[in-house]
Write a structure and sequence with these properties.
This protein is an alpha/beta fold and 332 residues long. It contains 13 helices and ten strands. The strands form two sheets. Strands 1, 2, 3, 4, 5, 6, 7 and 10 form an eight-stranded parallel β-sheet that branches. Helix 7 packs parallel to helix 8 and helix 10 packs across helix 12. It is globular, with a radius of gyration of 18 Å. It starts with a helix and ends with a helix.
Amino acid sequence: MTESTAANALIESSLVWDNHGCMPVRPHDESFLPQLERYRAAGVNTVALNVGYGEQGIEDHVRMIAHFRRWLMEREDDYVLVGTTDDIERARRQGKLAVMFDIEGMNAVSDQVSLVQLYYDLGVRWMLVAYNRANRAGSGCQEADAAGLTAYGRRLLDEMERVGMVACCSHTGHRTTMDVMAYSKRPVIFSHSNARSVHDHPRNVRDEALRACAATGGVVGINGIGLFLASEGDLVEAFVRHIDYVVQLIGPDHVGLGLDYVFDQKELDDAVSDPTAFPPELGYAAGIQMVPPESIAQIVERLLTLGYSNENIRAILGANLLRVAKQVWRGS
């Protein structure tokens, strides 16, 4: 059996979970949503779709969730809205794509802790603390982080634990991250982050924080944005290099996929043109390259070449994230 054949067979027989995908966050635009089929064609069974980030507020997030939910529910032959882990396993058996939602930053709840329950009921399964800049909960990764996790941030983490929502520290400042890891009683994730020791960028994560994530029982989802992978070269090779580094550091049971693929390149280009959120001196500019879902087979091939076992690859492809979901989500 060739490596390519072995990779495809392994993908077909595994749960494949991309923990962060980015459709346009425009509540009246369905034009890109049919491209969700690219996930299924690439062998992905489960995806978390972003419904808002950064400075966007409550109305922005609720509008996006309503938009996605209606579109998906009208296509029940192809998609399953995720409520429990049983839904993920059912969707895989039926050849459908299981879809949940995620939120990038606690601005989504503003000053109202009770919104955490509403978001969970509507399908949000993880939320990160801060998006590059500080909010009421803590600091972002692209600024000074002297204060760390705030008292309000601790209240939100308590509520997330109560309702079953996973806490995430991607985009979050280092001190705030370490405070979250120390405070949390359940697994914490980096949904879409890379190793700063492999490529030095403020969006990437220090070894200390990667170890702390593993100590909670959490998972690091490797990010496919070229700017965070390497300064140049083959993006898939760089992606696998980050996987291998993190596996060697904290073990194969704590690594997953969080491609962070943005389907609308123009929306990405427009976003990074904001110098306050995306300082150009940190490399943000139009035309950022990304690892697409179609690269998953190549990723698996390269892991096989490195000598990874089928069991460890299955863990990275999705079993690790499923384990965290079963530990944290209510009713799972």
